[in-house]
Amino acid sequence: MTLSTNYTLDKPYYYECFDESLPYSSQAKPKYPLLALLITLGLLAFYQLENHYLGSFMIMLAVVECLSFYYKRPWWVARQMMSRASGSEVTITFDDEGVKAENPHKSYQLSWQQISEIIETERGYILKAQRGMQYISKQALNNEITAELNKRATQ
Description:
CATH architecture of the domain at 2-9 and 87-154: Roll
Radius of gyration: 21 Å
Strand order of the largest sheet: 1-2-3-4
Helix content: 40-55%
Largest sheet: 4 strands, antiparallel
Shape: elongated
Structural class: alpha+beta
Number of strands: 7
Distance between the termini: 17 Å
Order of helices and strands: EHHHHEEEEEEH
CATH superfamily of the domain at 2-9 and 87-154: Pleckstrin-homology domain (PH domain)/Phosphotyrosine-binding domain (PTB)
């Protein structure tokens, strides 16, 4: 069995990738303990040490952390769009050995043994491995590939 398909790494793909992968990521929630620590240290510096510069700095770090969480999606997509791979066409091949994806700038290969979990989302599949996650949009997949991924997901 060798099945192959192509897709383009464009802005809509990156938005879909981010939206579908985020719920399964460890970065899905704000870092509340860090925020509480920064604000507490900032207030302690203000009132106990009477060091307003240090207190202001700690509270501003907490604000920056909040902003980084709020703007995570557009910032991630902007970084992907600036990469060399942006706009290139990816060829993804499914065979008995595993999944292989290639574009002119990068390639990766995951054997079926390396893939610990296949998660079907509303608009694609997430292949979880020890090295991280790979997202594949259903728009790029034909019925044969979808059937193969569904079969592998239930094993």
